[in-house]
Amino acid sequence: MTIGALREARLLGTDLRAGLRAGGAPAARRIRRLLRADAVLLADLDGPVARHGTLPAGSDTDALLAEVYEHGTALRRPPLCAAPLIVAGDLSGCLVAAGDLGEEDLGEVARLVAEHLDHAGLRTARVRIAAADLRTLRAQISPHFLHNALAVIAAHIRSDPARARGLLTDFADYLRYSFSTQGDYATVAEELQATQTYLELQRARFDDRLDITVRMAPEILPVAVPFLVVQPIVENAVRHGLERKAGRGHISVSGVGEGPFVVIEVEDDGVGMDPALARAVLAGGGPPARGVGLANVDQRLRAVYGPEHGLLIETAPDSGTKVIIRVPRFMRGVVAE
Amino acid sequence: MTGLLAIGFLIAASLAIGVYGVRAARTTPDFLVASRRVGGGWNAMAIAGEYVSAASVLGLAGLLLKDGIGTMWYAVGFTAGYVAVAALVAGPMRRSGAFTVPDFAEYRLASTGVRRLCGLVVLVIMWLYLVPQFKGAGVVLQLVSGTPYWVGVVLAGLVVSGSIAMGGMRSATYVQAFHYLVKLAFIAVPAVFLVVRAGAETRARALEPVTVPDGWSRPLLDIGDAGYPLLSTWSVLLATTLGAVGLPHVVMRFHTSASARAARRVAVMVIALLGVFYLFPVVYGLFGRVLTPHLVHQGATDTVAVVLPGEVAPGTLGGLLTALVAAGAFAAFLSTSSGLLLALAGGLSHDLFGSGLSRLRLAVAAGAFVAVLLSLPAAHVDINVMVGWAFAVAASTFCPLLVLGIWWPRLTLPGAVCGLVVGGVSATGAALASVAGTYASGLLTVLLAQPAAWTVPLAFATMVGVSLRWGSPPEGATRAVLRLHAP
């Protein structure tokens, strides 16, 4: 019996996943069954949104709702009973039921519905936060990088004008890609292009003591992946792996297809890090200097492809870092515009 | 011995290309530009390489020797299939972004259930297709090294699953393209040699065979001498042409093209590559009729391409040429089976039971194991006939799904599911019934042995009929279809 009630409560949450307007109808049906009421009506502040069962003839729901919204408390106008939905402290709707039922029961169910609506709100907020994070990531080309890139181009202008010109074009391409606002997905080829322009600029700054290898199976180039997933990883490898290392550094970006999956690996032979630190960085903790890059990429991959497709980091102090992305080649809804 | 060496060398080379052959470049522009420009040609060769299976290298020549020149309709159908592919599915498939047929089904019908069903159909087609490949490998190994048939089959299973596990297909495009060249060279060189060495008299006899059974030189196929040559020919043509549209591992390759336009162009290139290739099995078949007619009585016609060079030039040269053909056949076997096995494993792990790399490896092993088990009793079924069944099932299931899914916005979920089930069950059932027994009625024999003539229309009719009657097109169907055709 208890388990059954819990199950109903959980399913009510599933109904209300996308809010009262989207899931009101099944929720009303479930609440009516739960309360054994003759009829159930769910309303938000704009008026009724869903009803199940037939309300007694002549019942003036509009007046009832207005009264509830005015006082913000439960009301009893036999045969109707109404309880406000108070989501996160704000009055945001009303639950009306008809039939022989206790005021306590109705209040309890109303609180449950409010709780679920709160969760639905949080869920949409989470999506919004992820989108905002992506915007941050796009806007977050570090001022250091901008300064360094321009400085290195300036340094080449007299000594090697052709190279300076090439670098400037790279810089422009890079900026355009990072600032582009359309679409959440890009092809692997586009991601790679952005990564390569970034690496070219970094290489010039490192005075060519940075070796770059790109190995990519052609069959994965047209695959769509979330926007800006490879470049932040490469940036992380350069900033935290290679910048602190003396002497030459090597970074390799490789991609292959493995059956229905695409595997992209970014490997550097820099200073590496403590695996515990890597874990903390992915979890969003760690020192702020490590930036939001890796954690954000990890989060977005999980959000798009499911929890088993997050980033994989293989690392140890002084033995380089290898970051692996493994995602399905096709996922419904993932399309590069 | 030479044969074994040649095969060993081939496997080593394929593995090396597979593991290290991913295009390496230091800087952006050359890398991306190169991969875009070279892409089309390589991709076409890769498709042809994967497609030209043991069926084409061994089976076609063998069946030609046995059943007569009407067999060439198989080659026509195998090639013509790409006309249908280029015209109907290559571009839209590329635009959909779907990698496999189950992906496409999910994209178009917005249901994960239909994805599972498609995964199941993938398994059936791939196993039907894998068995003749393994049989080919077993037969060739038996010929060049004298080991029993089952040893060859088991070894083949181990080699293919092992090479996939070692990452041998990580750069599938280059491995498959390499295999196309190997196959073409290894089948063409001995064939040209045959023609030159055989002498004028044999050449004349090959073109005008006299000691052949009735109907051998008739340009129509007559399955099992059932007396319905026209029906048989149409049925085979329908199966092979439309089957190519629905073969899961073929559809996958178009995902590699940079754009829909490129995908179509690749399909056209494939037609040319296949056209060149299929000239050569004919040479073996015609000469086999003159030089090795005894193979027909031994029921070993699938070996004709390997046996022939030795007949014409005994000694070292013949041995060398035999080794070449054997290696070519093995390349055919290796490339096709790896492609098939990967598609099968993808279906098994990705579509049927949640994803994950460890599951993929497990699925490769399981898929190869089942294929080996099925191949052991298949020693006496003609390679080409089995391949024909794989095509027939593909033509009766995925071909209607893809064609209607792409070109008919009103296709509904119940319609697609019913069509898939009806087409799959009828085609597979007919093939099984055909192996299980012999039938007195000639018409029945043909309809069971080559079922495409009735299963394909049946599947199309079911999909259309049920779609019109039940259910409504899934939400967003119009947009999904529009996307497939938007430039």
In the CATH scheme, what's the topology name of chain B? Sodium/glucose cotransporter
Structural class of chain A: alpha+beta
Task: Name the largest protein-protein interface in this structure.
Answer: A-B, 35 and 45 residues
Q: Report the span from N to C terminus of chain B.
A: 55 Å
Q: What is the gyration radius of chain B calculated from CA atoms?
A: 22 Å
Envelope shape of chain A: elongated
Q: Please give the count of helices of chain A.
A: 10
Indicate the mean pLDDT of chain B: 82
Q: Indicate the CATH class of chain B.
A: Mainly Alpha
What about the largest sheet of chain A? 5 strands, antiparallel
Strand count, sense and barrel status of the largest sheet of chain B are: none
CATH C-level class of the largest domain in chain A: Alpha Beta
Which architecture of chain B does the CATH hierarchy give at level 2?
Up-down Bundle
Q: What's the order of the H and E elements of chain A? A: HHEEHEEEHHHEHEEHEEHHEE
InterPro entries (chain B): Na/Glc_symporter_sf, Na/solute_symporter, Na/solute_symporter_CS, Sodium:Solute_Symporter
Membrane topology (chain B): Multi-pass membrane protein
GO molecular function (chain B): acetate transmembrane transporter activity; symporter activity
Pfam families (chain B): SSF (PF00474)
Task: Describe it.
Chain B: It is found in: Cell membrane. Chain B: One of its GO terms (biological process) is plasma membrane acetate transport. Chain B: Belongs to the sodium:solute symporter (SSF) (TC 2.A.21) family. The complex is a heterodimer of chains A (337) and B (487). Chain A has 337 residues and is an alpha+beta fold. Chain A folds into 2 domains: 2-131, GAF domain (Beta-Lactamase, 2-Layer Sandwich); 140-328, Histidine kinase-like ATPase, C-terminal domain (Heat Shock Protein 90). Helices cover 49% and strands 22% of the residues of chain A. Chain A has helices at residues 2-15, 20-35, 61-71, 103-139, 143-159, 161-179, 188-205, 230-242, 275-282, 293-305; strands at 39-44, 47-52, 75-77, 80-87, 90-98, 185-187, 210-216, 224-226, 249-258, 261-268, 312-315, 321-328. Chain A is elongated and about 90 Å long. In chain B, 79% of the residues lie in helices and 0% in strands. Chain B has 23 helices and 1 strand. Residues 23-34 of chain B have low confidence and may be disordered. Strand 7 of chain A pairs antiparallel with strand 1 of chain B, so a sheet runs across the interface.
